[in-house]
Amino acid sequence: MPSPSRRTVLATGSALGGALLAGGLSAQAADREADPWKAVLDDADLVWQRMPKTWYEGPYLGNGFLGSGIYAEPGAETKAVRFNVQHSEVQDHRPEFGSLFGLARLPIGYFTLEPVGTITGLDWRLGLRDAELTGTLTTDRGTLTLRALVHNSRSVLAVDVTPSAGERDFRWVFHPADAISPRAAFKPLPDGYQGNPPAEVTEHEGIQAAVQPLLSGGQHATAWRERTRGTTRTLYVHVAHSYPKSTALDRALAAVRGASALPYDRLADAHRSWWHAFYRKSFLSLPDARIQRFYWIQLYKTASAARRDAPVMATSGPWLESTPWPNTWWNLNVQLEYWLIHGSNHLELDAVTRALSEFRDNLSKEVAPQYRADSLGIPRTTDPHLVNGAAGTLTGYGVGIPGQDPPTPEVGNLTWALHNVWLSYRHTMDESILRDVLFPLLRKAITYYLHFLEPGTDGKLHLPATFSPEYGGNTRDCNYDLMLLTWGCRTLLESAELLGTDDELAPRWRAVLAKRVAYPTDANGFMIGADIPFAKSHRHYSHLLAVYPLYELTGRTPHERALIEKSLAHWVGFEGALQGYTFTGAASMSALLGKGEDALRYLGELMTRFIQANTMYKESGPVIETPLSAAQSLHDMICQSWGGVVRVFPALPAAWADLTVHNFRTQGAFLLSAVRRGGVTRWVRLVSEAGAPCVVRHGIAGPVEVRDGRGRALRYSDAGDGAIQVALGKGESALITAKGDRPDLTIAPVRPNEAAARWGLPA
Q1: Is residue 744 exposed (0-12), middle (13-18) or buried (19+ Cβ within 10 Å)?
Q2: Model's pTM, two decimal places?
Q3: 155-180 confidence digits (pLDDT tens)
């Protein structure tokens, strides 16, 4: 067979970025395209030429544990800049006051950078590629040139400042926060609850430390030291938390002692290397400059807020601020926060699978005692160890019992969280996830439902009244629960077959699928449940989970498609309570239906109405799930892989005529690379990591050729509906092109359709 091309795309990103070719590029083009990652990341940097005044405007640094948000000191905007110091492990340990008070994340404090003069201007850049803030702060006495990072592995905030002569006497001041649940500013305190005693500031051989004792025992400690090298002064900060022992101080001192022995540049080398490697695991470029930059910022944000071994993200990530939601929320927030890790090929950030597995014993304690032998549940809110503590609307929300209220019977959250685990399995085909985590936990989550299913006079299985998150009111045959129950039973049967398990509950799961009552609907589409129509503005799509993200209903028939379209239009047609994630959900559902223009319109609504200057998001407090879920909406427009079929570019708007994706991870553990030029898909490449069945709807018009990594023809069969099936073993690849076409296989950024302002606060 003749060679398909003089060029070869590497199976995964190479040291030069996956864009190196075997030949044929001009020197100028090769220089431009040798590092596409650097090009898109440099373009996505956030800039500030005006002073940020809030969490929603300023730069942010983090490593999943330590986080720092940076903005002007409130009430002293021209006198000081605040560097928040917060940590995802720092929490209280008084379960008797519930997850929202007694187990809440606790604020730590902040440093103020206080110049000699009055601040008159600034020019900052948050460099995504290096995960580093750089720039200058100008005063009427001179300038402060700064660099700052939260070190990836050492978990140290390092701020390197070089002052001009007039600013040599600038200073750093640490302000310990009151160690009380942030919810106290929004809701009344539970009886008997009080804040922790003040922090104690001490000095230890040149290192300062603020030690916060906890009434429950244990402590957290913030240690810092400033080192001077020439005219440059570098601040090093570390936070440690310990419970029930009081070891945090010693750990914090040791961390600062070790980090401060290194000049800033030496400290930064390993940090930058980690981030460079992180980004190269996947690539995406599209012609909307504003959205492309937004996407890469979300990858930066996720890697700043999440690690596999870090706590599952709380509502504001590691950047705790004044909030009514000072813990982890499981009825939507967690699920949306982690969706983007799959397609972007960043399973190293999957804390959900790790936490549900590690703390599974605590999940049995969240259901009533009579069900603990065979059932699990997760309440609306927990601490990082999946503990809820006291249940009640003031202190936390328990799992509840179907048909009973109080406590509110919100029971589907664990099943929905396990859908995230299922996605991690499907995108890696790692059988240990299926065998050791998903199957045993999902089995007990579904068993909880089985205790309450009852046959009705119609011969169908019905659920007693449960709660659909956030709508209000309890309803029989609640769609939130029926949809999750259906997905759970189907997934358990499929998992048992894959694992070769003859489970004694399999007949019950089959009976549920055969006999459960139909999802309640009316003239407007899906209802909340049998007793509650969808009749008011509602930000949550809890009644639509079977459409998205479960893909149980996908519009296979004209009737099903019409039902989805009607339900979607009715849901977003009620203004008043709609919020940002309403529009990310609507965008993803539109993408499912192949409506790229609608998906883009919904994302436009999100960007215009809800996304803040630094791409953060707010409702009545800071929350981070919505921008992260918007990145997943982009994924859903570019690639979908539900139902065993990889769909390439399934919902692109006409304006996105050019698009490049590389090493996008799909279900079945395939790495997808594809290029679209002039509205035409030129080539598609799939690399199989697991040897799973490969069915791809490639979107290339007319006859195609399929070749392996050496250019040899591969056999394929027509799978119908524009898809082909290719037999790929583990490690093998398939390149799909139009017959006779030899396209350029370069991975490179596409040109934007028009210029767009940078994120941040540019002039």
Answers
A1: middle
A2: 0.95
A3: 999 999 999 999 999 999 999 999 99
